[in-house]
Amino acid sequence: MSDHDLPPARRDLARRYEAVRRHTLTLAEPLSAEDQAAQSMPDASPAKWHQAHTSWFFEALLLRPHLPGYQPLDDSYHYLFNSYYEGLGPRHPRPQRGLLTRPSLDQVRAYRQHVDLHIRQLIARCDDTRWAAIAPTLELGLHHEQQHQELLLTDALHLLSCHPWRPALLDSPPPPATTGASAWLRHEGGLVEIGHDAQAPGAGFAFDNEGPRHRVWLEPFEIASRLVTCGEFQRFIDDGGYREPRWWLSDGWATVQAQGWRAPLYWVDAGDGDDGARASDATSRWAVFGLHGLRPLDPVAPVMQLSFYEAAAYAEWAGARLPSEQEWEAASALPGIAQLHDQAWQWTRSAYHPYPGFQPLEGAASEYNGKFMVGQLVLRGGSVATPPGHTRPTYRNFFPPAARWQFTGLRLARDARPRAETHA
Questions:
Q1: Which helix (H) or strand (E) holds 380?
Q2: Contact call for residues 361 and 392 (beta carbons, < 8 A)
Q3: What pTM does this model have?
Q4: Greater confidence, 129 or 3?
Q5: Among residues 143, 324, 346, 420, which is most buried (max CB within 10 A)?
Q6: Of 158, 173, 410, 161, nearest to 303 (Cα)?
Q7: What is the pLDDT of residues 223-280, one digit of tens each?
Q8: 233-237, long-range: CB within 8 Å, 24+ apart, which pairs?
């Protein structure tokens, strides 16, 4: 059966499935087979593993339980490429994914093709009752793969940053950063609704942790119209920000001391004698490694690769604070607000907790989000590595406070000034 013969809803999902799966391969294409097998740290995974795991997700949650007569390409893959789904059996240890030299990259690609072939069969052959049961999981799998597309890029970038050559992942030059002066945008607060409303007409997809929609009370606040830039963050560094404990939370200061931090993760100090980042004047002291390789610091580009600790310290130094996730979502509709979804994920001051009335998904997918709701901070927005169309104002990303290999930045907030004192 061709796509044209499918009912419209199935045809749309089948075409989006093909597009998402193709995009993963496109992102991995600049990496050599050796690049795709290596793991630079326990928190990162090899690009080869990301490609296999996203296939495993469709196989484990859809093909094995729902396609009669399905035969896995290799039963051992169920163990090798499980991530954290306890209910689906044991798995290879996460810190040792880089030791999986076998299967080869070619075999992983064959695995993807095997899964794709059978997903097409499942979409075409299942009856309407089974389709109603599997369509939400298929949709979830597409958004899950888009999350791994961003992780593939961030993990590959960390790997390449460890190489003395600091090779570029993308050949094209980065787009020029453009930003105007930052302005304080006022929100009057009050009783507001946040979160995904699954019952709203045209609600669309959301992860389980984005709902249910509920009411919260906000005091009046102000939020910056744009993200903090590299040039602004450099002033924090030049003012001794990484040497002055008064700006830092206790855990943050302990981490700075233990890890020897003195700049964001991929900033290279030309004064250290790095051949790829020699400075000719004070403004070019720093170079920044990114998807396009090592380049002189762009003072108007949003600062990225910040931990929560660094974001909070900068906000304290700047006489401001980080917004709560509720403030961020309420402010996302304010006129004049910019750089919400396409530059850097933005740390908030909110712990990653369930919303009132939260219910995890059923079955194996119940482990997707809920069990991580401890010891993490919420980020909002999206980044240069986030696939287009993947984000929305209710999206809740989350990482531990010391994590900084993602495209994470910050937006300032502050309590609202009296009307007479409010200024841009």
A1: strand 377-380
A2: no
A3: 0.95
A4: 129
A5: 346
A6: 410
A7: 999 999 999 999 999 999 999 999 999 999 999 999 999 999 999 998 765 544 444 4
A8: 233/264, 233/303, 233/306, 233/314, 234/286, 234/297, 234/299, 236/313, 236/314, 236/317, 236/318, 237/262, 237/263
Q: Token pair for residue 100?
A: 């999986």
pLDDT digits (tens, 9 = 90+) for 301-324: 999 999 999 999 999 999 999 999
Nearest Cα to 289, choosing from 308, 272, 269?
269
pLDDT score recorded for residue 283: 55
Closest to 307 in 3D by CA, of 349, 267, 264, 353: 264
* Contact criterion met (CB below 8 Å) for 118 and 63: yes
Nearest C-alpha neighbor of 380 from the set 398, 360, 407: 398
Measured on CA atoms in the order 260, 263, 267, 272, is the torsion positive or negative? negative
The beta-strand segments (E) located in 180-283 are 184-187, 190-194, 214-218, 221-224, 267-269
Residue with tokens 């030049």: 238
Band of pLDDT at residue 175, cut at 50, 70 and 90:
confident
What does residue 236 show for φ and ψ, rounded to 5 degrees?
Answer: -60, -45
Q: Which tokens in the block code for residue 238? A: 């030049």
